[in-house]
Amino acid sequence: MKLSGSMWSVSKSFFIFFFFFSDLAQYSTLNRPEGKILEPVGVFEALKQHGKYETGQLFLHSVFGYRGIVLFPWHARLYDRDVSPAAPDSVGHGSKEVKGKMHTYYQVLIDTRDCPHISQRSQTEAVTFLANHDDSRALYAIPGLDYVSHEDILPYNSTEQVPIQHELFERFLLFDPSRNPPFTARDTLRAWQEKNHPWLELSDVHRETTENIRVTVIPFYMGMREAQNSHVYWWRYCIRLENQGNEVVQLRERHWRIFSLSGTLETVRGRGVVGKEPVLSREQPAFQYSSHVSLQAPSGHMWGTFCFERTDGSHFDVRIPPFSLESNKYDKAPPTGYPL
């Protein structure tokens, strides 16, 4: 049995090495230093079917392939329009009510070595904040910070004391070999989480699938600023597009409708998203980005469609699930910088 266990560990270690680098095979000759040899990442652990992953858990992202580490969990209400509706704790948009189901997400750090390899499919500076000065539109970002759903976590362990390269890793986490996982939160992480909780908090997730293209939207309230004797409320929203079919498609246009509590309805049309027109295929099925919206009212709604093109030149619209823009009791934005 001891030999069998040893062989199983070696097998899992090899698989984690193969998964990560096979996903990034297209970069093997361009982005790696000359003569660089592929290295194992660690040893896979069993997936958690129940419960949550703890602070310090190492993982691979099952979709984007990057290495990361869990900082802390968020418990969000997932409104999935692909499942049958139910009444309690539901939101109604049009003729359909969708029940919110609790789901676990995680605040994580991305290994900076992997950022160049995923930047075409997922923004690595997607978590933004309002800057704390007079420019009401100024934003700043914390690079390598992400939100990851529980099912996207592929947990692993490593013998390295600093297995993730990120400027905040050693400021937020302390190596403790007596624990499992062997990394524990420093006081700086707890202070940062408490201080920035209103601007980091993930509370609602919205999801809908049209013709095998699944759209997931996560809105975040960013705070309020005063501009020209009026209040301007800011939100960021993260959108993930996933091709769950076999057909290659390309995003061509976006069409947004933005309703404000003040009574205004704005229509926004444009090519692609964040300057890109991503192709979704079986090899690279997902694309994730973040953007921002501001209203001169404390709440509103957004909905719309993405126009996709098939390889035969035909087009189809994919619904963006309607979601609310809600402010909270905090009317200030956090100061810039890290609490070091």
UniProtKB/TrEMBL annotation:
<dbReference type="InterPro" id="IPR036767">
    <property type="entry name" value="ApaG_sf"/>
</dbReference>
<keyword id="KW-0496">Mitochondrion</keyword>
<keyword id="KW-0227">DNA damage</keyword>
<comment type="subunit">
    <text>Interacts with PCNA and POLD2. Interacts with SSBP1. Interacts with PRIMPOL; leading to enhance DNA polymerase activity of PRIMPOL. Interacts with POLH. Interacts with POLD1; leading to stimulate DNA polymerase activity of POLD1.</text>
</comment>
<dbReference type="GO" id="GO:0070987">
    <property type="term" value="P:error-free translesion synthesis"/>
</dbReference>
<keyword id="KW-0234">DNA repair</keyword>
<feature type="signal peptide">
    <location>
        <begin position="1"/>
        <end position="25"/>
    </location>
</feature>
<dbReference type="InterPro" id="IPR011722">
    <property type="entry name" value="Hemimethylated_DNA-bd_dom"/>
</dbReference>
<protein>
    <recommendedName>
        <fullName>Polymerase delta-interacting protein 2</fullName>
    </recommendedName>
</protein>
<dbReference type="InterPro" id="IPR007474">
    <property type="entry name" value="ApaG_domain"/>
</dbReference>
<keyword id="KW-0809">Transit peptide</keyword>
<comment type="function">
    <text>Involved in DNA damage tolerance by regulating translesion synthesis (TLS) of templates carrying DNA damage lesions such as 8oxoG and abasic sites. May act by stimulating activity of DNA polymerases involved in TLS, such as PRIMPOL and polymerase delta (POLD1).</text>
</comment>
<dbReference type="GO" id="GO:0005634">
    <property type="term" value="C:nucleus"/>
</dbReference>
<keyword id="KW-0539">Nucleus</keyword>
<keyword id="KW-0597">Phosphoprotein</keyword>
<dbReference type="Pfam" id="PF04379">
    <property type="entry name" value="DUF525"/>
</dbReference>
<dbReference type="GO" id="GO:0042645">
    <property type="term" value="C:mitochondrial nucleoid"/>
</dbReference>
<dbReference type="InterPro" id="IPR036623">
    <property type="entry name" value="Hemimethylated_DNA-bd_sf"/>
</dbReference>
<dbReference type="GO" id="GO:0003677">
    <property type="term" value="F:DNA binding"/>
</dbReference>
<dbReference type="GO" id="GO:0006281">
    <property type="term" value="P:DNA repair"/>
</dbReference>
<dbReference type="Pfam" id="PF08755">
    <property type="entry name" value="YccV-like"/>
</dbReference>
<keyword id="KW-0732">Signal</keyword>
<feature type="domain" description="ApaG">
    <location>
        <begin position="207"/>
        <end position="332"/>
    </location>
</feature>
